[in-house]
């Protein structure tokens, strides 16, 4: 069974195959609209009856306040389409005015790309496409991890079809067998290729109950060696013990306050067996300070995992914001972490615990035998992390979650990530595009989020579908030309 879901913000673009060089790219320049271009845009939107807001509108502040208050930008206009035709006209009007387009779904871009990533964009707000589900945009098309992903795959893996608007305003339907190049590009790099108006998604029957667990392991942080050895025991269990099935997903969470915990869930599991047999081996190297392992309903599990936020969120006047900087790190199943990088990481954690530079680091379990995340070929989509074992999200924020920004926080997060990579130079680490780092150059982003083979394939598709570079952000496909492919890099 599958359903279609209206909504979203994904991108589908157009470059020419002969123009695969940096000379095509607008790079990091600003695209400040001229008075004439703003008038052209406004007149075109009015002629086509596309709802929109600009700086004179009463709802402008609500529409343009970013999730990450550290990175504010000012769009030229925000269109508010309710039909695919209005989406198409939003794109063609922006192109006619010579402006760049950024679609917005949930609006949670860590780099504020949901308001353009620079000043002067036209934002296409997809909150009007809410018949079934909302806020799935970039989350689904750039991967989309959840606690059910080791069993059912990433959100991206559930997509069986997409309706999208291209840079020229035309409409396409893409599947595994139809418009296959766009299908490949939208599933992993959508923000450079088009605006998805409908998802067709394979669904699963939710379990009636889920075994939820959250366990305090903070005593193990008494030394970097102790916690590192414990983490390696968990990694060994994940990679080699058949007791850990894809039904179980979990994360470690460590923070600047000296806390360490493991949280996760097991679907379709026997509670006593998981609690008494599986879980003790999963955390055999850790000291347990307190634990909660219990069965909850599916909805109660989701609500518990989302806390303190609510599952239901408003389409407009969204009030959850933060002031933060993030770096991600993806370790590969083929290169499990030895003791040294883990020790360096936790040594750094224990030596940087100032309340003036607060942070947390989440380490999600992705791979291991049987995981649905790494069951597909790397060439089946443009998402580059199908071979991930662990995904780190290193997240620093201001003490009151508000501006102004303290650059010391950036340095702490950079140092946390460097502690791992410098200790394992052959680790073949990558990054996760949903945890986007705005400080990366376009070339660094291309290498970290896609790798040379995937990026160069996307660049060729970009050349075919968005030669005007209508869809753009500072790290979009096409900001740099062809990347050199390292010897031994996995092919398609």
From TrEMBL:
Alphabetical list of Pfam families matching this protein: BBE, FAD_binding_4
Alphabetical list of InterPro entries matching this protein: BBE, FAD-bd_PCMH-like_sf, FAD-bd_PCMH_sub1, FAD-bd_PCMH_sub2, FAD-linked_Oxidoreductase, Oxid_FAD_bind_N, Oxy_OxRdtase_FAD_BS
DNA repair as UniProt keyword: no
Keywords: FAD, Flavoprotein, Oxidoreductase, Signal
Tagged with keyword Signal: yes
FAD linked oxidase N-terminal domain location: 76-133
Record-annotated Berberine/berberine-like domain positions: 432-477
PROSITE patterns, per database record: OX2_COVAL_FAD (PS00862)
Highest taxon of source: Eukaryota
GO molecular function: flavin adenine dinucleotide binding; oxidoreductase activity
Signal peptide stretch: 1-21
Record-stated family: Belongs to the oxygen-dependent FAD-linked oxidoreductase family.
Protein name per its UniProtKB record: FAD-binding PCMH-type domain-containing protein
Organism whose genome encodes this protein: Monilinia fructigena
């Amino acid at each position: 069974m599958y359903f279609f879901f209206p909504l979203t913000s994904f991108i589908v673009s157009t470059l020419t195959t002969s123009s695969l060089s940096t000379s095509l790219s607008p790079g990091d320049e600003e695209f400040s609209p001229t008075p004439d271009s703003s008038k052209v845009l406004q007149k075109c939107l009015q002629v086509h009856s596309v709802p929109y807001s600009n700086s004179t509108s009463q709802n402008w502040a609500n529409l343009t306040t970013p999730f990450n208050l550290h990175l504010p930008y000012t769009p030229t206009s925000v269109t508010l389409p309710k039909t695919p035709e209005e989406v198409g006209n939003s794109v063609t009007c922006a192109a006619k005015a010579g402006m760049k387009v950024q679609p917005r779904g949930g609006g949670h871009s860590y780099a504020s790309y949901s308001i353009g990533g620079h000043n002067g964009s036209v934002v296409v707000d997809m909150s009007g496409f809410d018949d079934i589900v909302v806020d799935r945009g970039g989350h689904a098309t750039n991967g989309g991890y959840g606690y059910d992903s080791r069993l059912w795959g990433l959100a991206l893996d559930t997509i069986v079809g997409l309706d999208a608007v291209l840079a020229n305003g035309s409409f396409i339907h893409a599947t595994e067998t139809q418009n296959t190049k766009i299908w490949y590009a939208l599933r992993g790099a959508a923000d450079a290729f088009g605006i998805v108006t409908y998802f067709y998604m394979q669904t699963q029957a939710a379990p009636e109950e889920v075994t939820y667990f959250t366990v305090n392991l903070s005593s193990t942080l008494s030394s970097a060696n102790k916690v590192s050895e414990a983490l390696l025991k968990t990694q060994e269990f994940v990679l080699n013990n058949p007791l850990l099935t894809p039904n179980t997903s979990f994360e470690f969470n460590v923070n600047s306050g000296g806390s360490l915990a493991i949280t996760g869930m097991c679907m379709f599991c026997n509670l006593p067996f998981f609690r008494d047999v599986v879980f003790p081996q999963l955390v055999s190297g850790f000291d347990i300070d307190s634990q909660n392992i219990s069965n909850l309903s599916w909805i109660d599990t989701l609500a518990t995992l989302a806390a303190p936020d609510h599952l239901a969120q408003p389409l407009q006047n969204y009030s959850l914001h933060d002031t933060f900087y993030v770096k991600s790190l993806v370790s590969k199943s083929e290169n499990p972490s030895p003791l040294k990088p883990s020790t360096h990481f936790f040594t750094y954690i224990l030596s940087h615990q100032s309340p003036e530079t607060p942070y947390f680091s989440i380490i999600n379990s992705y791979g291991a035998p049987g995981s649905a995340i790494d069951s597909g070929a790397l060439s089946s989509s443009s998402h580059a992390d199908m071979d991930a074992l662990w995904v780190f999200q290193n997240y620093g924020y201001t003490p009151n979650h508000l501006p102004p920004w303290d650059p010391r926080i950036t340095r702490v997060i950079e140092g946390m990530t460097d502690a791992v990579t410098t200790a394992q130079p052959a680790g073949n680490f990558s990054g996760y595009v949903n945890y986007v780092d705005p400080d990366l150059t376009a070339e660094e982003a291309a290498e970290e989020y896609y790798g040379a083979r995937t990026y160069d394939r996307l660049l060729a598709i970009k050349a075919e579908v968005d030669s005007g570079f209508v869809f753009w952000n500072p790290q979009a496909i096409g900001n740099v030309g062809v990347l050199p492919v390292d010897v031994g890099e996995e092919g398609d």
